[in-house]
Amino acid sequence: MLKEKGLLFDVTMCVGCGSCYKACKEQNKLPQTNKDFLKDHLSENTYTVVEQYGDNYARKLCMHCDEPSCASVCPVGAFKKSDTGAVLYDGDKCIGCRYCMQACPHKVPRYEWEKTQPRVRKCTLCHDRVKAGKLTACAEACPTEATLFGNMDDLIAVAKKRLKENPGKYYQHIYGLEEAGGGHVLILSPVPFEQLGYTAKLPKESMPSLTMKAMEKIPPVVAVGGVFLTGMYWLTKRKNEIAREEKKSNKGIKV
After folding, report:
1. What is the CATH number of the domain that holds 20?
2. Domains held by the chain: number
């Protein structure tokens, strides 16, 4: 079984070159969305961004939570935690409810609003590359090793060592290690993380665990909603399958 992998991003080592941004675009075959990558934003066509805050540069991407809230709120199981640590999405299951977008504590998932068959889009932690034994595209492209990829235990050890050996260089906290239950993207910074646009003051408990506590106080009738949505998903999928079958049959009919 694969050891769970992740990323460690060190703000103090980032020079703002945009190599990670460009590598992600190339790896995922995403179109150009802004000639100035520093002014780009997360979108259905941009899975990671580099943002400038004074002399510092910060990366934003899916944090690949240990207990992802996107997966916990999805009524049809379109999101799942993989054995590599990545949080993956199955567009064939998605019914477009966008609960994942509302639930994410880091405000990451984006929706293809302009497409007739829209999907939710976000970083996949280069799942296919990792399964093949490769680095993520962003880590491989980084010229300063500001972004490291590896086993989570190793990355945590590296992060803790840097904080201990350079107390004046770093704000003494590893962002992503405990926020919302922790995840597979860790960040080190010379300044408090809210100064770099990261969501601050998140609970240490995962969002699903907090949700379960709240759900215990809600009447059972609410659960019927999940059953209804699952049924609607099946009906919609079956309707599309029938339409495709009819289309294939009609191709053979001559008038």
Report:
1. 3.30.70.20
2. 2
Tens of pLDDT, residue by residue over 156-198, are: 999 999 999 999 999 999 999 999 999 999 999 999 999 999 9
Q: Is the same domain home to 230 and 146?
A: no
The Cα–Cα gap between 209 and 68 comes to 10
Cα separation, 195 vs 17, in Å, equals 20
- CA 37, CA 47: separation in Å to the nearest integer? 12
pLDDT at 142 over 90: yes
**Residues 191-235: tens digit of each pLDDT:** 999 999 999 889 988 766 655 554 455 555 555 565 566 656 665
**CA atoms of 9 and 5, how far apart (whole Å):** 14
E strands of 27-126, at which residues? 49-53, 56-60, 79-81, 87-89, 110-111, 120-121
User: How many CB atoms are closer than 10 A to CB 216?
Assistant: 7
How far is it, in rounded angstroms, from Cα 75 to Cα 57? 37
- Residues 151 and 202 grouped into a single domain: yes
- pTM, entire model: 0.82
User: Cβ neighbours of residue 74 under 8 Å, at least 6 residues apart?
Assistant: 97, 99, 100
pLDDT of the residue at 214: 47
Q: Residue 123's closest CA among 57, 46, 70, 175?
A: 46
Which is it for the CA torsion 83, 89, 91, 93, positive or negative? positive
Residue 93 to residue 229: CA distance in whole angstroms? 12
Q: Which domain holds residue 133?
A: 5-210
